[in-house]
Write a structure and sequence with these properties.
The protein folds into 2 domains: 86 residues, ATPase, nucleotide binding domain (Nucleotidyltransferase, domain 5), CATH 3.30.420; 148 residues, ATPase, nucleotide binding domain (Nucleotidyltransferase, domain 5, 2-Layer Sandwich), CATH 3.30.420.40. The protein has 7 helices and 11 strands. Strand 10, helix 6 and strand 11 form a beta-alpha-beta unit. By secondary structure, the protein is α/β, with parallel strands linked by helices. The strands form 2 sheets. Strands 6-9-8-7-10-11 form a 6-stranded mixed β-sheet, sandwiched between helices. 38% of the residues lie in helices and 25% in strands. 38% of the residues are buried. The model has no long low-confidence stretch (mean pLDDT 94). The radius of gyration is 19 Å and the shape is globular.
Length: 255
């Protein structure tokens, strides 16, 4: 059994896998000031809640876009399980053909998403990952990663709007009752939720126009479950895409 961890700017997603099967997925806050011990306690609690003992863990893999947290979480996993921890980065075999100007610039999270996407779904493929930023990655019909876009994440843009206005309240991310809001909260919900859904629909349409062919579209990330159902385009939601990719990469590199 292995533990797979994706460290994002806002949240850390972790889970365990056995024989390529994801056993559980949990989400915790990314805290740059947390110590090795604090992360070890949190990870231990996640394992306990899901009925898994640290002694059952035989390996681990991390993908991270927060370098200051990577080493701390890696040390925490080693302290807790005694396992060596693999980190996605230079020297790690992924099997992904990256056809962008500077492949070294591609974030490990996007690499992992693409590795899983190619394995799980038909190409050409568009992968939407809705986290702190919303990223859209494109894999062509030859299974090459050819590029994508980076957009402001929904939570980030909402925080910016609220912090720069005097009278707009914080809202829950949930489906509005209607498009045309009848009060401030309804207007905010409609504007935030549907603007993001429309942006995704529009980006997918324009990407397909540029490619000249229809694509399979897959979405993942913490906010995909509330936004993607509002899209008009048929989009598959796969909450475990990142963990699946981490398991695939671990198996390619295990000795």
């Amino acid at each position: 059994m292995i533990i797979a961890v994706d460290i994002g700017n806002t949240n850390i997603v972790l889970g365990c896998a056995e024989n390529d099967r994801i056993l559980f997925r949990e989400r915790i806050s990314t805290t740059q000031t947390a110590t090795e011990l604090e992360y070890a306690v949190i990870i231990r609690e996640a394992l306990d809640i899901n009925g898994i003992s640290p002694a059952d863990i035989g390996g681990a893999i991390i993908s991270s876009v927060v370098p200051s947290v990577t080493g701390t979480v890696k040390a925490a996993i080693t302290k807790l399980t005694g396992s060596d921890v693999m980190v996605v980065g230079p020297g790690i075999k992924t099997g992904l053909s990256i056809m962008i100007d500077n492949p070294a610039q591609l974030g490990s999270d996007l690499v992992v998403d693409a590795v899983a996407g190619i394995r799980e779904y038909p190409v050409p493929l568009i992968i939407i990952d809705m986290g702190t930023a919303t990223t859209i990655s494109v894999v062509d019909s030859k299974r090459n990663y050819i590029g994508g876009v980076i957009m402001t994440g929904m939570a980030v843009s909402t925080d910016a709007l609220i912090s720069r206005t005097a009278q707009l309240p914080r809202i829950a991310f949930e489906k509005p009752k209607r498009i045309i809001g009848a009060n401030t909260v309804e207007c905010l919900k409609s504007g935030i939720m549907y603007s993001n859904a429309c942006a995704i629909d529009g980006m997918v349409e324009r990407m397909e126009e540029e490619l000249g062919e229809k694509c399979t579209v897959v979405a993942t990330g913490g906010l995909s479950g509330v936004v993607i159902p509002l899209c008009r385009r048929d989009i598959i939601i796969d909450d475990d895409l990142m963990l699946k990719g981490l398991v695939l990469i671990y198996n390619k590199n295990k000795r």
